[in-house]
Amino acid sequence: MFAGVDVIRDREDFYERLTLEVSSIGMSLPVDHRQFLDQLDEDKVNRGIRDGSSPWVLECIRRFASIEANCSDKNHKGLGRVSAHGFPRLGGVLYKEAEKSECDLAMIASATERMIHAGYLVCVSLSNFGKRIVAVKDIDDLWTEWIPLAYSIAEDATNVVYNNCSIDNFWINVLDKSGFQVNLKKLKTGENTEIGRSIGGLTTTGVGLFLAERPN
Question: Cα(163)–Cα(157) distance, rounded to whole angstroms?
Answer without folding.
Answer: 10
